Amino acid sequence: MSSGNPHLIKRASLFAMFCLSYLPLLVLLIIKVLLEKRDYLNYGGIKTETALIFIKQFGFVSVLGVLAVYAIIGTLLTLNNIKSNRGNGFPAKVNSIKPKNEEALSYLATYVLPLLVQGNIGLFEYITFTVLFGIYYKLYSTSSLILINPILNIRYGLYEIEYVKVGSTVVKSAMVISEHKWINEDDEIKLIRLSHRLYFAF
């Protein structure tokens, strides 16, 4: 039994997908901090003093902005790479299927993080966010949460299926994500493995 990382996608792609799942949170925090620091939104020229003020007041926002951009670009590249490897998938027949898009609703509960930041935003709030974000990523990177993504699930359907690989009689279960919003029993699909019992379906 392996205790290592079960995912076949690279860690950089995994982190991009994780950040995408929290994209609304990142945007909310950026807006919150900018509103809190709006008195500093004045051009003061290019000087060491103004650079230090920018880092102090908007360094956190800059990091969040980079994460947001990385999330979008990284996930798009990851999905394009998966789709380009469609030929490496294997055909399977669906025995039973349960839509799981509603799982993303419980995921939204973690967006209460911005509510932790009340009043002036300082070092403690930044540390709190960083620690919790790190814990969430650790849980995310070792579970099926890579497919339970509120942003991805707007476009992609999430399903729990039982399937039989073509040429086999063994029934297996898996969580799949697909561009097809409607997959039914007895449908023939092609699966590409992303992780242990996690697949992309065509």
What is the strand and helix layout of this fold?
Blueprint: H1 11-21, H2 23-36, H3 48-84, E1 90-99, H4 103-107, H5 123-140, H6 152-155, E2 157-165, E3 171-178, E4 188-195, E5 198-201
Parallel strand pairs: 3-5
Antiparallel strand pairs: 1-2, 1-4, 2-3, 4-5
Helix pairs in contact: 1-3, 2-3
Structure described in brief:
By secondary structure, the protein is an alpha+beta fold. 44% of the residues lie in helices and 19% in strands.
Account of the protein in words:
The chain is of the alpha+beta class. The protein has one domain. It has helices spanning 11-21, 23-36, 48-84, 103-107, 123-140, 152-155, and strands spanning 90-99, 157-165, 171-178, 188-195, 198-201. The protein has a five-stranded mixed beta barrel. It is elongated. It starts with 10 loop residues before the first helix and ends with a strand.
